[in-house]
Amino acid sequence: MIFSQQALNRIAHLAMVSAFALGLGACASNDEKEDTDPVELVEITESVKLREVWSRNIGDIDALRYAMLKPAIIDGKVIAANSEGEVFAFDRATGKRLWETELDQSISGGVGVGNGLAVVADYRGRVVALNLVDGSQRWQTQLGGEVVATPAVGSGMVVIQTVDGKLLGLDANSGEQQWRHKTVLPVLTLRGTSSPVITAGVVYAGLDNGKLIALSASDGLSRWEQRVAMPQGSAELERVVDIDGAPVVRGELVFAASYQGRVVALSREDGRGLWARDASTYHNVAVGAGAVFLSGADGAVHAYNVGNGQIQWNNNQLLRRELSAPAYFGDVVVVGDLEGYLHAMDPTTGQFVGRTRVDRDPIRIPLLADGDLLFALSDDGELVALRLER
After folding, report:
1. What pLDDT was estimated at residue 68?
2. Which residues form the signal peptide (predicted)?
């Protein structure tokens, strides 16, 4: 099995990865080495334009440690953070800066919003909650465990997922810990952690062991758990089945996908499986136009029928371009890549319908679609708001 460079970058146990990479170098032919290069972009005929509305540079995102600082939108504000400890609020429509707060910590997890709060966390497990109105600090809490996932905020709780397999429920008003859920992790995992989501008093979380769980937000009691992926093979690298993308809740279903595993649609109520298809991704899926869209670990983009999981199309023209998670925006599907391009695809055919370059650094962080605007954040901190035009 040949792993992509992006996969190797995300393996947490560096010694094992180094040995594996040396083995590949010794046995790979020149042709195989060429196949690791990103494919060249082909010219397309654009029928839509992704027009920049505004942009702001907020400072670097720590790509080497794989910080995934996804911005958040609430109450007409875009809340964004960089790895140096700065948190910003911008007017959603104009990009005007509303406030800025400097924290004496390197931010690695965020931004979670809700209950009047913007919540971020750091590599040492410190969680800070800011007032959404003016950015002033409401509380901070020291937890055990590194945090690289976005905190979930809702139902009067802040839920934190740590890289060592813990889910921690904090009171949104005080930051005091209310409950703890611990999972035993596999020997080897990818660098990264799925971000939990809270919907209607239930926490949904993807785990590094390939399971999706549902917990009560108020007390952390388990409601159900379901295996998304089953480890395969004898080597530890072959058995990596992390769920690193956040679960996506739509209607009565929750969607999730794993690395070297499957993409699934499950019942929100009891975790019963509606359908499952083989897949491999580091990201969350997107749902829209009757389909589930997925950026594969190899750079292929796939669309599955939302009702039965049947494949609708595959686009293999972005292989090895280290794509972001897809976003369903307007009536197109958009992904970012390692050279700062955004690619727009027809959701029914997978054909390219538009392309724009917003930066020269990678766009790894999940895109954020909100009404008539799409927000992208590059590794060097270029935050861009775009509108779809025909």
Report:
1. 87
2. 1-28
Q: Which residues contact 120 (CB under 8 A, 6 or more apart)?
A: 81, 87, 103, 107, 109, 110, 111, 112, 127, 128, 130, 151
Q: Which residues pair with 167 in a beta bridge?
A: 161, 181
The Cα–Cα gap between 132 and 76 comes to 11
Verdict on whether the full-model pTM lies above 0.85: yes
> Is a pLDDT exceeding 70 seen at residue 258?
yes
CB within 8 A of 19, min separation 6: which ones? none
Token reading at 249: 């809740």
What is the amino acid identity at position 207?
Answer: L
Instruction: Give helix then strand counts, H and E, for the chain.
Output: 3, 32
Map tokens 């599955």 to a residue. 304
Three-state SS for 238?
helix
Backbone φ/ψ region at 330: left (φ over 0), alpha (ψ -120 to 50), beta: left
Segment holding 32, helix H or strand E: helix 30-34
How far is residue 69's CA from residue 42's CA, in Å, rounded to a whole number? 30
Q: Are 341 and 41 in contact (CB under 8 A)?
A: yes
- Residue 141 three-state SS: strand
d(CA 187, CA 174): 35
Cβ-Cβ contacts under 8 Å for 267 (sequence gap 6 or more): 252, 253, 254, 273, 274
Q: What is the DSSP letter of 18?
A: H
Q: Locate tokens 């509303």: which residue?
A: 98
Q: What is the mean pLDDT of residues 199-203?
A: 98
Extents of the domains making up the chain: 1-37, 42-65+284-390
Label residue 386 exposed, middle or buried (CB < 10 Å: 0-12, 13-18, 19+): buried
Top CATH class, 42-65+284-390: mainly beta
Instruction: Write the DSSP string, 57-95.
Output: E-----TTTT-----EEETTEEEEE-TTSEEEEEETTT-
140, amino acid identity:
Q
